[in-house]
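Run log, item B.
One chain of 154 residues. Sequence copied directly from the ordering sheet:
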Amino acid sequence: MSKALFGAGCFWGVEKKFSELKGVTFTEVGYSQGITEQTTYEEVCSGNTNHAEVILVSFDESQTTYANLVDFFFQIHDPTTLNQQGPDRGSQYRSLIGFYDDSQEKVAIEITKQLNDSQFDQKITTIIEPVKNYCPAEEYHQKYIEKKYSFLNS
């Protein structure tokens, strides 16, 4: 399995959307890109750790590609709003693509440039950088939408 990391605002809805994609085998919400190896939701919300809310995605490359995931990432959020998505504001909600290797970096840069030219009028604020200091979010954040709205699936 391969993995990818994305920040697109509040991680609950983003996790749900990625988990429904063909080829995605696992999703986990967490925090990444901060100044410490471990953090908590409260510390992230303080704005002092520089972590972003992110989704770790594991995927089967025989069923989907990293490029497909990057394209999907740009479809499910507004990459032109700096440090915000909808009503959520703060650096923890920034748009970011964390890459694990040179090939992911290249794909992320190419797709971002292409979309910036063709669709977003040079306004994309998405940060593309190596993954650093990723840690899973607390258990109560994992699969939050499924847990909170499980009655809808009954």
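Observations after the first pass:
- Helices lie at 11-19, 41-46, 66-75, 102-118, 144-148.
- The mean pLDDT is 95.
Flagged for discussion on Thursday.
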